[in-house]
Each structure stands twice: as structure tokens, then as C-alpha cells.
Amino acid sequence: MSIFKNIFTFFLIFLFLLSCTSSQKIATLKPDPDDATPLVYESIPSFINLPISVKLKDVEHQTNALLNGLIYEDNNIEDDNIEMKIWKLAPITIENNPENSNGSIKTVLPLKAIISYRIGTKTLGVSLYKTKEFNLNGKVTLVSDVSLSNWKLSTKTQLKSLDWNESPTTTILGKSVPVTYLMNPTIKIFRSKIEKSIDAAIDKSMDFKPNVLLAIEKICTPFLMNEAYESWLQVNPIEIYSTNAKLKNDTFLMEMGMKCTMGTWIGKQPQSKYDSSKIVLKPVTKIPNQISANVTAVSTYAEASKIMTKNFAGQEYGSGNKKIRVQNVSIWHKNDKMVIALDVLGSVNGTIYLTGFPQYNTQTKELYFDKLDYALDTKNKLIRTANWLAQGLILRKIQESCRYSIIPNIEEGKKSMMKYLQNYSPMSGVFVNGKIENVEFQKIQLTNNAIIAFVKINGAINVAVDGLK
Predict the structure, then answer these.
(1) What is the mean pLDDT of residues 252-260?
(2) What is the pLDDT of residues 131-155, one digit of tens each?
(3) Whole-model pTM?
């Protein structure tokens, strides 16, 4: 009986030792990553068309905001024998001039004016002057040829008519006396002053450059495209182009284009690189009507490792009772190659290292690793301890798990970007609309700490100004 117990105990110990040796441990040398350096990559400029429309109502709003109360004053009677003060009595109205199809605006200005007109001579040092003060209360209609150049609206105004609410008067012996017959000829003398005051006011109030630069700053602030993947889109402007504006119906239309670089970042929100002082504004005669955007998608190796680990989840490699499961994946860069570290459990425990070149298949729209093979030290140790794992068949199966389609990513990216092309308002009164026609994957570039994917986007963008403050 004791002999039987000894044999049984020996058998259990043998099975235990056998079970311990059936999972072989492998200790391989880790290919050290290249030294980390600042992220520098080849950036292809993009050209984005941004047609701008500004409604006349917004021009009217801005003009009224700046012209209030006393809008013109000339206290020097010595230069032309006229002193003048003009007050705005009610809001100015600005509309398209229906009598001119070439693009001009009609401005109606309700005003009150006090004009001092000096008549006389100066002889032998003796001044023989007589000054008359005229009071006006009426409505001036002006017609202006307009242009919008270098982001500033300028006008060339002519007084078309002056309709009196009350007859122009002057004070004689303390009483207001109508002097319409005297005032109408006098209009010719000071009408140029009224015209110039309107031109100066519109010129001062209608500088759109600060508004445009503020809108561009808002657009260039990195914004979250996908919360799950923490992906951010960043636009960095280089140059801004614009054509002269044209007036159509009740709207100014101006073609604008922006030369910029674009990139997507994975992880925390990147800092904005926008600097208005470095923006160059260039006048041009014509701008293409399509977007041609080259977007760089930046994925750090740490983030790429997380995605690859998900791809290997639940997968087993091998046959029969010789199998491994991948528990974790780490990726880094070494001598222009990708190193893929697989932490495995099963018939072999430890870490095996693969190397290969990331490539893109334009037909299947898949990323894959070309010339994928075990790192030299890993291969030597597998041949000695687990030759079945070193065989090409299992390596090819592992390689299949390192291949994945980017079609869902492209579609998800288009869907995320469209949120910012459907009446997106980066600031009050500015609305962005557009469309994306197609997205083309271009190439992959490796840096010491990230994978850079280059994507080309074609489409159109429209920026409307409505209710500008």
C-alpha cells in the first residue's frame, strides 16, 4: 500500500513538473527606441476657399453705431467762410440703389444742421463781414459708389437730394424767418462737406479686418472632433487672399482664400499657434471655389499601441495544444521601422518583438506592415525554444491582425468635420457652411514619437456675416 502511495505521489509530482515546463518562458532583448526628439514632420500647405458675404443691414448697423448725435463739426470760418454743425436726428438707412445696376448704395440721413455763412471783404486791414446763421431740418439722400478693398469698405458719395422737414430759417431780430430761396443755392457750397463726412464715417466704421482676423482666430482654435479618441483638428494660417467685393442685391460678396497647414492631434488639446501679427493679407483677382486641404493626422505611439491592443483582444495563434494569446501591444520607432512588442501568454510566456514598415493599400484602404518579421534576437531564441512559433505560418496570421481598414475612420472623420460645416458659428454674426466631397489617404511618415498620416480633402466652405456687431 505504501509503495502504491509513493508511486501515486511521484506521478502527481511528475504531472506538476510537466505542466510547469509546458509553458516555456522566453527572455528576448528589447530593441531600444530611437531617442525622442521634438515632433517635426513634413507639412503640406492647404488652400481653403472662404467666400465672404456681408449684408447691407450690417453695414447700416455699424454706421449707425458710430454716427450718433453730432456727426460733423467745422468751426473754422476763415478757410471758406462757412462754419457747420450736423446732427443725426434718426437712424441712417442704407440700401442698394435701385437706379444703378453697377453696384451703388443709397443712404438716407435725417439731419439737423446749423450753418454760419460769412459774406463780405477785408480791405486795408478792415474786415467788412456779415455772418448769417441758417437752421436746417431735413433728410439728405446720398448715392455712393462702393468698393471693399483690403478688408475696408470705401465709398465715393454724391448728394442727390435734400428734402426739408421744415423750411430752412435764419434769425432776424430774434425771430426765425424762412429763407428757402437763399438756402437752396447755398447747398452747392457745402454739399461737398456733407459728402466727405459720410465717406469718412463709412471708411472709419467699415474696416472688416479686425472682424475677419477674429473669425479666423476662432476657426484656428483647436476643436474636439472625436471625444472617444480625443482627436483635435488644428488649422494654422499662413497667408490670407482676397478679391475686391461686389455688391449684389443687398449683400457684399468677397472671395477669400486661406493658405494654411492642418493637422489632427490625438490626446490632450494642442495649443493654438495663431498669431494675427504674422498673418499676411494679399489682394488677388480670382480665387478657386474649392477646398484643397491636406490634413496631417498625428497619432502618438502610445495611442497607436492602445488601438493595436484592442485589435488583438480575444485572438489566439498556433495549433493544437501550442497556442499563445496577445495580452498587450506596444509600438515604437527604430531606424525607420516600426517595432511591435507583443506580450504573450500560453505555450510561450514573455515578449516577442516584430519589425516592419507601415504601408497603405489604396485599393482596400487598409494600413498594414510590409516585410513584417521577428527582430533578430527574438527569432534566434524562438528557433531554439519554440520553433513552431517562429514559423512563417503563424507570423502571417499575426500580420493579419496588424492590418486594418481606415474606411470607418475616414467616414467618422467626415462626419465629425461636417458638424463644423453646418451653420457653425465661431463668433456672433459669423456662420460657416460647407460640404466635403471626398477624402483621399496620401501617405504615412514616421517620426521618433508619432505616426503621421497625410489625408487630402476636397470640398467647399462658405462664410456668411449676418448680424455683425
Answers:
(1) 81
(2) 777 777 888 888 888 876 666 777 8
(3) 0.56
pLDDT band, residue 418 (cuts 50/70/90): confident
- Greatest Cα pair distance, the chain, in angstroms, is 155
Q: How far is CA 45 from CA 86, 260, 286, 291, 456, in A?
A: 52, 5, 19, 12, 11
Query: CA-CA distance, 201 to 198, in Å (whole number)?
Result: 5
Residue 258 bridge partners (DSSP): 48, 240
Using a pLDDT cut of 70, give the percent of the chain over it.
77
The whole-angstrom separation of Cα 289 and Cα 180 is 56
Q: Residue 420 pLDDT more than 50?
A: yes
Reading the block at residue 126, the C-alpha cell is 478792415
Task: Give the integer Cα–Cα distance in Å for 14 and 21.
Answer: 11
Q: How far is CA 148 from CA 35, 61, 259, in A?
A: 53, 17, 21
pLDDT grade for 9, boundaries at 50, 70 and 90: very low
Please say if the pLDDT value at position 409 is more than 50.
Answer: yes
**Which pLDDT value is given to residue 2?**
43
Contact 339, 33 (CB under 8 A): yes
340: exposed, middle or buried (C-beta count within 10 Å: 0-12, 13-18, 19+)? buried
246-280 core/surface letters (b: 16 or more CB in 10 A; e: else): ebeeebbebbbbbebbbbbbbeeeeeeebeeeebe
User: Domain ranges in the chain?
Assistant: 24-51+208-469, 57-205
Q: How far apart are CA 33 and CA 452, in angstroms?
A: 17
Neighbours of 146 (CB within 10 A): 22
Instruction: Output the CA–CA distances (angstroms, integers) from residue 252 to 145, 149, 211, 289, 433, in the order listed.
Output: 13, 12, 15, 17, 18
Whether residue 354 has pLDDT greater than 80: yes
Using CA atoms, how far apart are residues 321 and 400, in angstroms rounded to an integer? 22
How many Å from the N-terminal Cα to the C-terminal Cα in the chain?
102
* Cα 37 to the center of its chain, rounded Å: 28
